[in-house]
Amino acid sequence: MKESAVKKIAVLTSGGDAPGMNAALRAVVRTANYYNIECYGVREGYNGLIHDEFLKMGPRSVKNIINQGGTILKSARSMEFKTKEGRQKAYDNCVKHGVDALVCIGGDGTFTGAKIFNEEFGIRVLGVPGTIDNDIFGTDNTIGYDTALNTAMEAIDKIRDTATSHNRIFFVEVMGRDAGFIALNSGLATGALDILIPEKKDSISDLFANFRKGEKTGKASSIVVVAEGEKLANIYELAEKTKLEFPDYDIRVAILGHIQRGGSPSCADRVLASRLGYGAVTGLMEGQTNVMVGMRSNDMVYTPIEDAIKKHNEINKDLLLISEILAI
Predict the structure, then answer these.
(1) Relative to the CA of 226, which of 169, 176, 200, 264 has its CA 20 to 30 Å away?
(2) Does residue 133 have an active-site annotation?
(3) Of the residues 17, 100, 108, 133, which is catalytic?
(4) pLDDT digits (tens, 9 = 90+) for 204-214
(5) Distance (Å, whole) CA 20 – CA 141
(6) Which residues have a Cβ under 8 Å from the Cβ of 317 and sit 6 or more positions away?
(7) What tens digit of pLDDT does each residue of 63-86 get?
(8) Is the pLDDT of residue 283 over 80?
(9) Sheet of 222-227: strands edge to edge?
(10) Does the model's pTM come out above 0.85?
(11) What is the Cα–Cα distance from 203 to 167, expressed in whole angstroms?
(12) In three state form, how does the secondary structure of 275-294 look?
């Protein structure tokens, strides 16, 4: 590789934590070390840039973290970084430490901050997609998605045991404020009767029709998986409306919540994070900036951060059809 375009980098994790962020951090630090680039970790995201929370990091700084969930650098949402004054402080601290590039691990909000920072001050930035929602354009999967999906699947499997034992209907809410990837795939994997996600127009009459179909085929218990961002109604309202329509049903509600964000990352997330962390450093070395590194069809690609923010991964409509067919 020709001479690096950067000499000293800083890496931060920002926004919601995701399993595999530590693996990505480890890959950034060790790749930088391999290529003789100095590396700092920044604590608590953009807040750390503003308040000078820079930590010199080397290979031993990231030992035994590839299997840990969360982020050892901590994460925070920074209101001060949204102001020009706050970003000026952050830039001054980068200059103070001689940092000429940032690796920003996170999602939409993280990338928006990085893009503005680059445009205002010219410091190189490169994004690494870390979010369980899998809604970032420019990569087939985001870091943390596979782990969260498997956590949801395992939880729903356990709920099904109770549903079957008591002939109950369970409405299970999974994470996904604006995206239904976890709901769709966990619902398909666990044999849900219906899957309600923000990307499709659901109706209460269609939900009731699916319950009636289930009755005709002899279903005594059912699971309905609902993304937290479902527009039709919240999960409690859906359960109440269903109870009014089917008063004999024994209905329960389960919200999986933040359990989906934690835990040791899966093999797929560890490998993905390692590849993207490596790609972030080598991309900066090659002169890339204001882009996000991702994997598409198993190839490393760089997408302009503006596209990663404005566009979104689309739900596979074939999976919706398959889930309906197999739920009979």
Answers:
(1) 264
(2) yes
(3) 133
(4) 999 999 999 98
(5) 12
(6) none
(7) 999 999 999 999 888 889 999 999
(8) yes
(9) 194-196, 222-227, 168-174, 250-255
(10) yes
(11) 24
(12) HHHHHHHHHHHCCCCCEEEE
Radius of gyration of the chain (CA): 22
- For 162, 222, 228, the CA distances from 181, given in Å and listed in that order, are 25, 20, 11
* Tokens of residue 82, six digits: 């949204």
Cα distances from 171 to residues 30, 212, 215, 223, 261, in angstroms, run 44, 16, 17, 6, 20
The pair of structure tokens assigned to 88 is: 């000026």
Query: What's the CA gap between 4 and 281, in Å, rounded?
Result: 10
Q: Which candidate, 114, 101, 158, 138, places its Cα nearest to that of 287?
A: 101
For every residue of 167-217, DSSP letters joined together read TEEEEEEES-SS--HHHHHHHHHTT-SEEE-TTS---HHHHHHHHHHHHHT
Structure tokens at 310: 């404005």
Q: Quick check: 111 and 303 in contact, CB under 8 A? A: no
